[in-house]
Amino acid sequence: MSIISDDLPLDTPLAEDSHDARRVAYGYVEDAFTEAQQDGLDSDALAHAALFAAFRTLVDTYGEEATAVFAEALPDKLRTGAFSSGTRH
Q1: Per-residue three-class SS string for the chain
Q2: 77-88, pLDDT tens digit by residue?
Q3: pTM (2 decimals)?
């Protein structure tokens, strides 16, 4: 089993369902970050913990190799602003 990339064409209903689920999931993560920050946790610590949890889940679901292949695409996505909001550095 491989990790489905956002860049791969999917059937329209499947893509819409997946996109909607990811949007809802992101809202939950954003809410968790906000709540944890209100409780005094550092956003950097939260980000590292969230990345660790995400990669652990991906490895559990898809295995180390598929997750490593997925992670190899991250530097280019980071450099092109895929995760940026607002002003770029």
Answers
A1: CCCCCCCCCCCHHHHHHHHHHHHHHHHHHHHHHHHHHHCCCCHHHHHHHHHHHHHHHHHHHHCHHHHHHHHHCHHHHHHCCCCCCCCCC
A2: 999 999 898 765
A3: 0.71
